């Protein structure tokens, strides 16, 4: 079922991309992608100009590094496009620079080498205090940018392949020495566009903007096996003004997860994620479709997710935190979501996630408030929802409206909601919500709190 769905979705994306925008402007879908203007580069170079060989065997690390170095030092007005023609370009990890477009032609594959000894180590993120999986340093992402601006990764649906199976096996066998690399990571950067590229088999998280602003991820396909560990799709982390739209994601972990640091380190760093828009995303995962947390110690606010279609899921919507996290999760709005075949439709939980070390403060309690979820339709959902607040920090201002989550055989067979330490309201929710959510027979609870 998933493969036909994927091919259908890709065909829709290709059709949309080929549309004459001048003629279709009046019917163009709502988008947030205009937060970053798409640059038109006046100068082009090819990876083959620097010795790149796309035979799938030659190592092209030197070619990519020299091409990026040339772009960085030529400093041509308006930036430069680095063209990757059809072929398979095996390479180690490399950095990008400002004012660059990395353009993958149709049939172009940038494929990661699998020898971990060739991967540089970089310091842990200050908002995490250590590597996410292992103490100390972490492996640099396959494609990396730190302190850059005006960067585009795009093309004609070429592929960036992380060849992650060797890393997944190290994780399973507990032989990792350092935290696995992300496929693409930008730090301390702004004005980033990632579009029209297929990402597959990431060693760890796929696309990770951290301490960034003005980031657009649109028309991408992200693929990894369902049993691949921690292969999140897109993880905005302590970042603001992020637009994620019109994409298909099928991975082994959360499709989109909004984060902002881990326990005492995230609290001290104090940089929230804010103004995140997630729109027209389709996908499948044994974990969550849309997630917030659990590492949200710097705070998360003003997240909008709408027009989401999820199939064969663990959880449709998962907002997750824990005692010791601190921070806040507020002003989260989810609407117009379809969920088919899921363990849980909605989960808002205060007991999820581990801790970086024993220095965290168990009394640092997160604040969760202002969660609005409306217009959700689910079929073959084993449990409608679970809300578990914290006894000393209850979740408040929870608003559910027009939600129907049907069971495997009929709606009445869907286990009802389980709730604790929560307050809010509900309107037209089936199966009937828990008693902690006041049920209104008329009107919408979207205006419950003013």
From TrEMBL:
Under the heading SMART domains, the entry gives: PbH1
Kindly indicate where the leader peptide sits in this chain: 1-24
Origin organism lineage: Eukaryota, Viridiplantae, Streptophyta, Embryophyta, Tracheophyta
Entry similarity comment: Belongs to the glycosyl hydrolase 28 family.
Q: What is this protein called?
A: Polygalacturonase
Q: Where in the cell is it found?
A: Secreted, Cell wall
One GO-annotated biological process of the protein: carbohydrate metabolic process
What keywords are annotated for this sequence in UniProt? Cell wall, Glycosidase, Hydrolase, Secreted, Signal
Q: Main location per UniProt? A: secreted
Q: Origin, by domain of life? A: Eukaryota
Q: Which GO terms describe its molecular function?
A: polygalacturonase activity
